[in-house]
Amino acid sequence: MTIAMTDEAVDQIETVASNEDVDLDETLLRVAVVPGGCSGLTYDLGWDTTVQDEDTVEEHDGITVVLDKKSRLYLDGSELHFTDGLDGDGFHFSNPQASRECACGESFGV
After folding, report:
1. Which residues contact 99 (CB under 8 A, 6 or more apart)?
2. Taking the mean position of all CA atoms in its chain, how far away is CA 67?
3. What is the pLDDT of residues 11-67, one digit of tens each?
4. In angstroms, rounded to a whole number, what is the distance separating the alpha carbons of residues 74 and 83?
5. Torsion over CA of 71, 69, 65 and 28, rounded to 10 degrees?
6. Calpha distance 25→17 (Å, rounded)
7. What is the 3-state secondary structure (H, E, C) of 70-100?
8. pLDDT at residue number 41
9. Cα 48 from Cα 65, distance rounded (Å)
10. Kind of pairing, strands 28-35 and 63-67?
11. Least reliable range by pLDDT among 6-15, 42-51, 101-110
């Protein structure tokens, strides 16, 4: 697998999907790396219904995850976490490909 997901991340994705009336049997979670942030690249999570030709499709506890070719290279070996405590609220990646991260952890560089 290209990425791993903690139980907390899976639970939160299911909660968000339920709150937004998203059917996870028909909708994919697209995980991408896009230009931006103070370190050059940032993570993007969003709903999608289409798999492109060069996408990689992974299954994580009933959640279908789709990554484009470029994002797959940047995210290989990463783990998606979710925290809601004092250390920061939201989704965060532990990414072994990142050589630097901004102070808030929202963007990275390679």
Report:
1. 108, 109, 110
2. 9
3. 999 999 999 999 999 999 999 988 876 657 888 999 999 999 999 999 999 999 999
4. 22
5. 110
6. 11
7. HHHHHHCCEEEEEEEECCEEEEEEECCCCCE
8. 81
9. 10
10. parallel
11. 101-110
8 Å CB contact between 77 and 96? yes
Token pair 């009933």 is at which residue? 62
Tokens at 73, concatenated:
């290279």
pTM exceeding 0.85: no
Strands 107-109 and 100-101: antiparallel
Give 102's pLDDT tier (boundaries 50, 70, 90): low
Q: Rounded CA gap, 9 and 45, in Å?
A: 12
**Rounded CA separation 69/86 (Å):** 34
* pLDDT confidence of residue 55: 95
Helix (H) or strand (E) segment spanning residue 101: strand 100-101
Q: What is the pLDDT of residue 35?
A: 80
